[in-house]
């Protein structure tokens, strides 16, 4: 469950013309609550023009630093991102959920390994946290970063990454990719098949890369995953997180029925039973009943709304989070799940 706490903003740093980082003050009484693993995210909640807004942002700081810092890139028609970039001030208070997420790196100081990452745009945020963790907590390990942007001016954390490269020059290799400017020692274009092959078949062909972390748009992630598969990289060593799902009209229409389902929802040790339309998602139905079901993105990108089906059946319109084994065990993304059976039991506590 997402537990929210009111935290004040300690510092706002302008990263690019369209992005800022927000660092939060965490009182000593909540330090344990905000311990996190590299790669995890927090959910920010506030009210803008009378409407409750929730947004997920990956932590860019390392767990060892003790800092709770996220980057917010302003996007077109983005309600919270515009608010964060243009209106928020230091000492303002937001509701902040405790860290969560399954896109994680667990350091082991006894290991000697090579970790590679492909990031594009604001997808750098969790990757930066993972890179810092490898460099800080695995003194014998190496980190390889491929980072794509339009131009240097659009590159979030450019100076911080260059400083890390200088500090750990023997253990941190970075290759920038720019699609709208040609820069010395950088690749021109986008992260594509040739970019991935440059790393695995050329620059590091004699090195065993133990894990790959991917974060960015869906198309980039699919491209990198496909090329890694072609190069016989074990899928269990490839981890990814989307920050934006490509728009699609190909929702599984035949999975969404027009009937009704008797649903029991278990959340925070409380149960509620009611009738819902099968055309609704389970999360929509729960929120319509004012249940305190956890959620954030409502787009199938984060893992906030995961629950377990303990009786009955549900079908997800899309799934970018759960593994096949987890789905087989009954886990669903409730923001994407529609009931198929006449009766269903959904347990948010059993995850």
From TrEMBL:
Swiss-Prot/TrEMBL cofactor(s): FAD
Domain (2Fe-2S ferredoxin-type) ranges: 261-351
Transmembrane segments: none
Keyword Ribosomal protein included in the entry's annotation: no
InterPro entries on file: 2Fe-2S_ferredoxin-like_sf, 2Fe-2S_ferredoxin-type, 2Fe2S_fd_BS, Beta-grasp_dom_sf, Cbr1-like_FAD-bd_dom, FAD-bd_FR_type, FNR_nucleotide-bd, MRET
Limits of the FAD-binding FR-type domain: 2-106
UniProt xrefs under PROSITE patterns: 2FE2S_FER_1, 2FE2S_FER_2, FAD_FR
UniProt KW keywords: 2Fe-2S, FAD, Flavoprotein, Iron, Iron-sulfur, Metal-binding, Oxidoreductase
GO molecular function: 2 iron, 2 sulfur cluster binding; flavin adenine dinucleotide binding; metal ion binding; oxidoreductase activity
Protein name, as recorded: Flavodoxin reductase
